[in-house]
Design a protein that fits this description.
3 domains; 61% helix; 406 residues; mainly alpha
Length: 406
């Protein structure tokens, strides 16, 4: 529907100047009343979304739209021939916003109904106070209701335009937005408002990144409408607004037929790149067989392994220094010593628990520990050295699960 030129051609003639003066005086308080009534009666507008036009002005779209629409109405009944392009585009933007948010037009149409009811109630009040004639009141009523129909038509036009945009175009907007979110250093949240509106996305406070294997199959239709996805050939990933909960798990299971994925930590939006980095590092451990595939696998369950294996070269240097006393031993003896020492450290020096872990007799543990104590005398006496030994031995046990990580 193109303008509404037909509707404009049948507009009534201009109102007397005294009527225009009365209406103009009511605009500021009427705007507040309309906005308040819409927000209290229509839940979707209690915390309105911010399409690009309103985001640039720094003001909520409902306020901008109401003020522009009411002033344009007064101008119109005064006989102005101005086209009000700004007002028309705001009406279309409201319609597009509803489509981008995945909602029907019901909320917007309800807002229009409430707005015209409040406006007519006020017009009737000032008409009685100003003793306007029935003919003028009838003319005002015809003009007001025809005007609201015109605005609603513009919003429907914007809604249908947005719905007719190709899915590929929206996906492209979302992919570009996702890359902007992951940019280093982090982009301020305010800089995301306009591209987020173009992608039909509400900027969250926290996000959870998900790393997918290269070539992973993903059923886009099963993803939530607020999920951003980059399913390119290299390092595909998803962004989930908010924390990872049971409903998000069900969504991933439905969207990923091959099940394998790694869920990063939930972090502030500015730290999304860190969440993705940890998810990718954990995915590498899953693919290497070091970490069990949880389908999806949660980073928060493997943070120690991530930390211990985060720098293989540094780990080699640390092991060379801390385990230098074992260098002269044969491989079999060295393995028994490190295995026993690692179990003893995990058991906090309890020989019985150490024996249970190793499946040997406690006396065997005590015998081995006497040899170990002679070899690592100073290191076992120092708390910091014991901590380092424990970390090195844990990392080596993780590495033993897959030789390629050595």
């Amino acid at each position: 529907m193109t303008e509404t030129r037909a509707g404009r051609a049948h507009r009534p003639g201009p109102m007397p100047p005294q009527v225009i003066a009365i209406l103009s005086a009511e605009l500021p308080s009427l705007a507040e009343e309309v906005i308040s009534e819409v927000r209290s009666c229509v839940a979707e507008y209690a915390r309105p979304t911010r399409p690009p036009e309103a985001a640039r002005s720094g003001r909520p779209p409902i306020r901008v739209s109401v003020e522009q629409a009411m002033q344009a109405f007064v101008d119109q009944v005064a006989g102005s021939r101005e086209t009000h392009e700004r007002r028309d585009e705001l009406c279309r933007a409201l319609g597009r916003s509803e489509a981008y948010e995945g909602r029907s037009l019901d909320a917007l149409q309800a807002a229009y109904r409430i707005g015209v009811q409040v406006a007519w109630r006020r017009v009737a009040q000032v008409g009685r106070r100003g003793r306007l004639s029935p003919a003028v009141m009838t003319q005002l009523a015809d003009a007001l209701f025809a005007y609201i129909d015109e605005l609603a038509s513009l919003s429907v036009q914007g809604y249908l335009e947005a719905r007719s945009r190709s899915a590929d175009e929206l996906v492209d907007h979302q992919r570009r937005l996702l890359r902007l979110v992951l940019r280093r250093p982090g982009v301020p949240g305010t800089a995301l408002e306009e591209p987020a509106a173009e992608a039909g996305w509400t900027v969250p406070g926290e996000v959870t990144m998900v790393a997918l294997p290269v070539g992973a199959r993903c059923v886009r239709a099963a993803l939530g409408g607020d999920v951003l996805a980059d399913l390119g050939d290299t390092e595909p990933h998803l962004l989930l607004p908010g924390p990872f909960d049971a409903s998000r798990r069900e969504m991933l299971v439905a969207a990923l037929p091959e099940r394998r994925s790694v869920v990063g930590l939930t972090v502030p939006l500015a730290d999304a790149a860190d969440s993705l980095r940890w998810a990718r590092e954990t995915l590498a451990l899953v693919e290497a067989g070091v970490v069990e595939d949880g389908g999806p696998t949660l980073c928060e369950h493997h943070m120690l392994a991530l930390w211990l294996l985060s720098d293989g070269a540094l780990l080699d240097q640390l092991a060379r220094r801390e385990l230098s006393a074992l260098a002269r031993m044969g491989r079999g003896q060295r393995l028994r010593m490190t295995e026993t020492l690692g179990a003893w450290l995990e058991a906090q020096g309890n020989a019985v628990e150490t024996a249970r872990r190793l499946r040997v007799h406690p006396q065997t543990v005590r015998y081995r520990m006497r040899q170990i104590s002679e070899t690592f005398d100073e290191q076992l006496a120092d708390p910091d050295s014991r901590f380092v030994l424990d970390a090195v031995l844990r990392a080596h046990r993780l590495r033993e699960r897959r030789p390629s990580l050595r």
